[in-house]
Amino acid sequence: MSPFEAQHQAHSGAAEYLQMITPEGERILCPELDGHVADIDTEALAELYVDMVAIRRLDAEGTALQRQGELGLWAPLLGQEAAQIGAGRALATGDYVFPSYREHGIGYCRGVEPGDMLRMWRGAAPSGWDPNEFNMADQQIVIGAQTLHAAGYAMGLRLDGAPDAAITFFGDGATSQGDVNEAMVFATSFAAPLVFFCQNNQWAISVPVGVQAHAPLARRAAGFGMPALRVDGNDVLVVLAATRAALEHARNGQGPSFIEAVTYRMGAHTTADDPSRYRDELELETWRARDPIDRVATLLRSLGADLDSVTARAAAVADGLAAGMRAAIERMPDPGPDELFAHVYAEPHPLLELQQRRYGRYLDQFAAAHERGGRGMSTMTMARALNTGLRAALDHDPKVVLMGEDIGVLGGVFRITDGLQKDFGAHRVIDTPLAEAGIVGTAIGLAFRGYRPVVEIQFDGFVYPAFDQIVSQLAKMHNRTRGRVRMPVTIRIPFGGGIGSPEHHSESPEAYFAHTAGLRVVAPSNPQDACTLLRQAIASDDPVIFLEPKRRYHEKGEVDPEAPGDPWGSAAVARPGTDVTLVAYGPLVKTALDAATAAAGEGISVEVIDLRSLSPVDYPLLAASVRKTGKLVITHEAGASGGLGADIAASLTERCFNYLEHAPVRVTGFDVPYPPSKLESHHLPDLDRILDGVDRVMGRDNSLSGEQE
Ligand SMILES: Cc1ncc(C[n+]2csc(CCOP(=O)(O)OP(=O)(O)O)c2C)c(N)n1
């Protein structure tokens, strides 16, 4: 046996964990931790029971509110009640919590109001509560990011000589993220008083924990020189004891520690997820038998507690909580458009104030809302066209491999890779660990090896962990190696807004990539281009950022999967016209076409150009159009500052200065972080705002008429 095998065997026996209450409700001794819960008598145990029932109800109410259309999304905690109540009740008021997005139970323990817990999920605000009121940061959606914030906060506690500790919650998938690993480095290096609390609920959406690690996650801690406890996360008592022990360790100046609470996500990942696609009923049954609440009820009964009165109290607390949530939602006003511009900066910002004033004037013009144009019906959705393009690429070239989070059995969160793993195998359609830098970095390695990787980034906002690999490595490799190494890597990113999602799911990051030498950037607007451009991107020997307008995924159009397409990098005239050139790409091409139809009704002929290739831009085609019309409007969802519109306006002014009859006009998103969904209709350029821009270049009355700024 090799030394590696011996070592591996020594480390990979039955994955043990500490337990105090068995699934059958028996209290067993746990010498390592019993001392930490010596004060928990029957009455205190009954309180923990009440808490768990309460948050189970809170969770059910969240799901119900989402189903009834009151919330955009909800992340259920069903099954994780013991992990959250055990940890939450171990905390002192002065301790600070850095949660992920599923810790409603921790919020409950911290006293966060039900309405505050729901605000972000409703899309009424980017976050829920005042972190400093509850010593709990708001929900974090970028996997693992909060752990570094927690490490920094804990370093501050140590610098201040404060008596408190910090705790951060994250999932099993998060342990693959660079941020989490870097947080452990910082926390140990600086002996930060921090508890890393991993709720290993067995799944990261559709990816089982075995893809993240081949050993218990708690063992990760040893590599950082940090002690760890692995506990039954469905046993509220042992979780309470372990968290108390870890907090004490931190407060005693002994630095960070790691808790792995082994639990199970009984419900869906979020209300948008269907777990029956990737896990079986048998597994669910096994975990149902380990329910965190039932076992405490059994134990309470055997301890002689009056279970009827305990359950009655629990039901009353749960009912009150659910009623409070519903009442809070009923009272919660939708935010007004001014909220869009609020709090972007702490200090006054003239550009944003100008945008706010102008938008106010624009809105003032409208007495009634306008209807949007209808949808065309045809043969294939963009989602299906992309799937068809991927299938064809896999078919034609054995070196094509797909990589990404949840792209296998689940078919991706948007189902773009639906059925491909089944047909081409798990070695070609690869469910990766939850680590974007890792995905792109290894795609680079595969390209070195002669593969043609196609990476799926789950949402636009999650490409940033991979930014360094894309900008510093992928984009530069060909140049660095003087052309000796090619990087035929395609990075597919669903981008843009309009789908009512929380933060990080609606970004328009194209300018970062278009600014990066060495990358090609493409954004289709219709099913045919989605299929053709994707095949061209995969066939290209250069790295391509392939931006998919997610809000158009379900719109249909005619598709010929084998159409050769136009030369790589060319724009298209989507609708010819003679008065105004209107440049759009991705999701806004359809809006621009609708605007052109509306303008035609007023006798204005708008030529709509679908950019398709954002880098390089097809300037010959654009310049020919501007020379014809003399007027240019550019629209995109991304903010104006430093955006593609600025570059296109400058480049076309250089080329066509003598032909322009009016300064180019940009109709864009505002220079604000992408807003919560209740505000996105104000942020996103729509038909009317585009027409307002058309009126400006036409010298017609418009929302800025008479404006001096
Ligand atoms: C950096 C980043 N990449 C991808 C996502 C999309 N995403 C949201 S939740 C999730 C799975 C998280 O699994 P885990 O860390 O185990 O936590 P759990 O949801 O199970 O609580 C993924 C991939 C994200 N939010 N952030």
From TrEMBL:
Cofactor: thiamine diphosphate
UniProt KW rRNA processing keyword: no
GO MF annotations in UniProt: dihydrolipoyllysine-residue succinyltransferase activity; magnesium ion binding; oxoglutarate dehydrogenase (succinyl-transferring) activity
Record-linked Pfam families: E1_dh, Transket_pyr, Transketolase_C
EC number: 2.3.1.61
PANTHER family: PYRUVATE DEHYDROGENASE E1 COMPONENT BETA SUBUNIT (PTHR43257), PYRUVATE DEHYDROGENASE E1 COMPONENT SUBUNIT BETA (PTHR43257:SF2)
Stated name of the protein: dihydrolipoyllysine-residue succinyltransferase
Organism, scientific name: Paeniglutamicibacter cryotolerans
